[in-house]
Specification:
Elements lengths: L2 H7 L2 E3 L2 E3 L4 E5 L6 E6 L3 H20 L2 H17 L1 H12 L7 H14 L5 E5 L3 E9 L2 E5 L5 H15 L2 E5 L6 H11 L7 E3 L4 H9 L5 E5 L2 H13 L3 E5 L5 E4 L5 H13 L11 E5 L3 H13 L18 H16 L3 E4 L14 E4 L6 H4 L6 E7 L2 H9 L6 E5 L3 H8 L6 E4 L18 E2 L4 H6 L2 E9 L8
The chain binds nicotinamide-adenine-dinucleotide.
Nicotinamide-adenine-dinucleotide binds next to α8 and α9.
Length: 478
């Protein structure tokens, strides 16, 4: 099928059918800055239909039983790999890099893990007299709202977790990257009963309408802190359950006892994966002054190997995904340079129509400079020296963010003790940026509420029910 035909067939998934027509909005390729497709824009009437379909489908989906639901989730994971090429074509177009849909392989791992993991039942007390247990019940209809950086995996993780517990879903991808997700929904349409999953494309207003809709019972949101705070506030006013996976400004603290040649590529990889557009990417490095220059040189050497350009022109480093993000990163770097920072690599956007910015290592930028204090969410890494590790711990924690943090050292006991003092939802010793379905992930402070992954990730989509059963009928009979 040609790309034009694929695009023409794309639509929202509502009650088991693909709905197109109506208004549309443009989707731009960040590789060229050109409009590459028009995406259908869901109306509020269509949202009503989708929510009604999800509500109608929920009791049947719950009644299907946990084991059957889990096997269907396994099939969803298999289907995205079977249809990888079709989804990838669209995802690569809207993200401006080849093989953008590689996150689908991770999605299948999530599906299989959830399929293999029965819902937890906690036995709190079990004796001759009574049984007390804690079980997971569905919340109802989940509104799932995703950002543009890893749209397929983030949507898949939300959908699998919600469906496993017996919820039904109305999902919305980012308006910057909706195409791959609509294709993924079309692939899943034939596997799921109608109404169990509905996917609508649209902008922030559609997201806000999903949050305030009286027919949604829970909000699962991944995105910026500002939208997260507004969503958590709106959900709270309606007593809706909410999970918010928000931004971060992750610090990595590197002690003087590491081998710079070994650590630099690991730090580089964890900072510049997806061009730095990852919530759990390293966004600040604090390094002991004894190895400061050596580490800066090594990071700059790694950055120098990358070519920020379209793949067709030999590029190995992709663009920023959105124009606002490209402008923001450009502004943060020029602000830092104007305040005395120096670029050991990169430092300016690549001329042209695409949103390319080379991997940029900044020195001489400290607290009070925006690129250090704010989440840059792009290919920029300030590297900051310290003399006493206490300074580094204090600086790492001196932020409203609390997503992840790491300590790098050959002294594992010291690393553990220091990492334990980082104010973050995930801490590492000698690693950074690791997500897996069995590992709970999420933020503290302004970085979020609730968790994805592991048992807390299932609980986020559950109503917890405490069941107390007295075992002897003589309590009620003579
Ligand atoms: P964004 O908040 O602008 O948008 C995310 C989604 O929310 C989009 O679908 C958007 O249309 C919708 N939206 C925006 N405002 C809304 C509102 N008021 N009500 C309801 N929906 C609304 O975020 P973005 O720019 O797409 O994504 C980048 C951000 O996401 C970064 O801050 C990044 O750190 C964060 N992120 C966090 C995680 C995590 O797991 N913690 C993962 C990926 C991205």
């Amino acid at each position: 099928m040609s790309l034009d035909e694929t695009l023409r067939e794309l639509g929202h998934l509502v009650n088991g059918t693909i709905a197109a027509g109506g208004d549309s909005f443009p989707v731009v390729s960040p590789a060229t800055g050109q409009v590459v497709a028009q995406c259908p824009d869901a109306s509020l009437d269509l949202l009503d239909e989708a929510v009604a379909a999800a509500r109608a489908a929920q009791p049947g989906w719950q009644a299907l039983g946990e084991a059957s639901r889990r096997e269907i989730i396994r099939s969803l994971g298999a289907a995205v790999i079977e249809h990888f090429a079709a989804i990838d074509e669209l995802e690569s177009l809207e993200k401006g890099v080849p093989n953008a849909a590689v996150e689908l392989y991770m999605a299948r791992i999530y599906a299989n893990h959830i399929a293999d993991t029965p819902l937890p039942v906690e036995i709190i007390e079990d004796n001759d007299d009574r049984l007390i247990q804690l079980v997971r019940k569905p919340v109802g209809v989940v509104a799932a709202i995703s950002p543009w950086n890893a749209p397929l995996l983030i949507t898949a993780e939300k959908v699998f977790s919600a469906l496993a517990v017996g919820n039904t879903v109305v999902a919305k991808p980012s308006p910057f990257t909706p195409l791959g997700t609509l294709k993924m929904a079309a692939v899943w349409k034939d596997i799921l009963p109608p109404g169990v999953l509905n996917v609508l494309a649209g902008g922030d207003e559609l997201g806000a309408a999903m949050v305030s809709h009286p027919g949604t019972d829970m909000i699962s949101f991944t995105g910026s802190v500002s939208a997260g705070k507004s969503i958590a506030g709106a959900a709270g006013r309606q007593m809706k359950q909410v999970v918010c996976e928000l931004g971060g400004n992750d610090a990595a603290i590197v002690l003087g006892d590491v081998d710079v040649k070994v650590v630099a590529p690991r730090l580089y990889g964890a900072a510049f994966q997806l061009g730095g557009q990852a919530c759990a990417a390293i966004k600040r490095v604090y390094v002991h002054r004894s190895i400061y220059q050596a580490l800066v040189d090594e990071l700059a050497a790694w950055a120098g190997l990358a070519k920020a350009a379209p793949a067709a022109d030999g590029g190995t480093f992709g663009p920023l995904v959105t124009r606002p993000q490209f402008e923001r990163v450009s502004e943060l770097v020029s602000d830092a340079l104007a305040r005395g920072a120096k670029a050991a690599s990169g430092g300016a956007p690549v001329p042209g129509d695409g949103y390319y910015f080379p991997p940029t290592i900044l020195t001489d930028a400290g607290p009070g400079v925006r690129v250090v204090d704010e989440e840059q969410f792009g290919p920029v890494l300030p590297v900051i020296p310290f003399d006493d590790v206490e300074e580094a711990i204090a600086a790492a924690n001196a932020t409203d963010f609390g997503l992840c943090g790491s300590v790098w050292t050959a002294d594992i006991a010291l690393g553990r003790a220091l990492a334990d003092r980082l104010q973050a939802g995930t801490t590492w010793v000698n690693n950074h940026t690791e997500v897996a379905p069995h590992i709970p992930f999420g933020g503290i402070k302004s970085s979020g509420l609730g968790r994805a992954g592991g048992r807390p990730g299932i609980d986020a989509y559950s109503n917890l029910q405490t069941q107390i059963i007295y075992k002897n009928a003589d309590r009620v009979s003579g």
